[in-house]
Amino acid sequence: MVKTYYEAINWNSIEDAIDKATWEKLTEQFWLDTRIPLSNDLDDWRGLSADEKTVVNHVFGGLTLLDTLQSQDGIDQLRRDIRTPQEMAVFNNIQFMESVHAKSYSSIFSTLCSSEEITAIFDWTDHNEQLQFKAEKINTIYQTGTPLEKKIASVFLESFLFYSGFYTPLYYLGNNKLANVAEIIKLIIRDESVHGTYIGYKFQLGFKELPEAEQIKLKDWMYDLLYELYDNEERYTEALYHTVGWTDEVKVFLRYNANKALMNLGQDPLFPDGADDVNPIVMNGLSTGTANHDFFSQVGNGYLLGHVAAMKDDDYNIGRQK
Ligand code: MN3
Ligand code: MN3
Fold first, then answer.
1. What confidence tens digit (pLDDT) does each residue in 123-146 have?
2. Residue numbers of the chain with a pLDDT score lower than 50
3. Distance CA 11, CA 84 (A)
4. Residue 191 C-alpha to ligand 1 middle, in angstroms?
5. Of 70, 82, 105, 109, which one is least surrounded by beta carbons within 10 A?
6. Residues 90, 26: contact at Cβ < 8 Å?
7. Strand, coil or helix: what is 316?
8. What pLDDT is stored for residue 296 in this prediction?
């Protein structure tokens, strides 16, 4: 039946408790890049070799591209297929945080790199074959796919494609380097993990409603897409990491996270690689979550939301003519 009225969102009438729980989780873990003392990593940065710096720069250029895609097209597309009004509110939060993620890498660049270096990073990102392939592939599904196909593409991006890049800051964190840069990445990973779980859950609701023949067809499509993306990701990994010799261990990490993406979608894992196969130093950085941030010592190993103070009348006078 077509509705003849415009419906106000009622948070006291919740159709799906997961919407409310996700909203609460995401708003609790709100953060901004500007509150992380990135310049404390400058000494570590100066100690890296030229090849290592190039890896870091390219990794973050690639991650910027993926978060740009999510903030500009991904969430905008997913929002068109919502099942509940609260789901729209959750996606509004996710979309804003994707913009925070994309901006964070620029904060890292402006701390560590010269403006010429930053220009070169973005130039590399805009022309790297494997990066452009995955952005194009995912965005085409966003623009032309079915609601369920869009969710698959999004979960593959959130839970799998980011990890060829996330490997680098987690590796340095485990070696006591670039701790503040890694803190930003861990905050992003914490968000992505909720996004991937939530969108995967919404996928599963729709998938269960399909007739069995349609489910089989969509499953084939999903695994074909994953193979294609994995193949591209292997080449991207080789190109990124061959100078520092990490290619093989990054590929293990890729397969581990591809399985996690499939799990978020309620599917069976594809690869034999498990948590025990991943470099334990990287695994450790992934699993510890973020520690509480100590703003006074500025050691930057965690993040704490600022304390809330009641507003005073005077607060409204800022910038106002008296
Ligand atoms: Mn993101
Ligand atoms: Mn996300």
1. 999 999 999 999 999 999 999 999
2. 291-307, 319-322
3. 11
4. 7
5. 82
6. yes
7. helix
8. 32
Residues in contact with 162: Cβ distance below 8 Å, sequence separation at least 6, in sequence order: 63, 66, 189, 192
pLDDT at 4: 84
Dihedral angle, C-alpha 45, 49, 50, 55, nearest 10 °: -70
How far away, in angstroms, is 95 Cα from ligand 1 center? 9
How close is the Cα of 75 to the center of ligand 2, in Å? 9
Q: What is the per-residue burial (b if ≥16 Cβ within 10 Å, else e) of 59-89?
A: bbbbbbbbbbbbbeebbebbeeebebbbbeb
* Of 5, 6, 105, 241, catalytic: 105
Structure-token pair, residue 204? 């599963």
φ, ψ of residue 177 in degrees (nearest 5) = -130, 150
The closest ligand to the CA of 78 turns out to be: 2
Question: Any long-range contacts for 287-296 (C-beta under 8 Å, 24+ apart)?
Answer: 288/186, 289/186, 289/190, 290/183, 290/186, 290/187, 290/190, 293/35, 293/36, 293/183
DSSP conformation class of 176? T
Is 105 annotated in the active site? yes
The whole-angstrom separation of Cα 246 and Cα 237 is 9
The pLDDT assigned to 284 comes to 84
Cβ neighbours of 246 (radius 10 Å): 19
| Residues 6 or more apart in contact with residue 214 via CB below 8 angstroms | none
4-12, long-range: CB within 8 Å, 24+ apart, which pairs?
Answer: 7/85, 9/85, 9/86, 9/88, 9/89, 10/85, 11/86
Structure tokens at 55: 């890896």
* pLDDT reported for residue 302: 43
What distance, in Å, lies between the first and last C-alpha atoms of the chain?
56
Radius of gyration of the chain (CA): 21
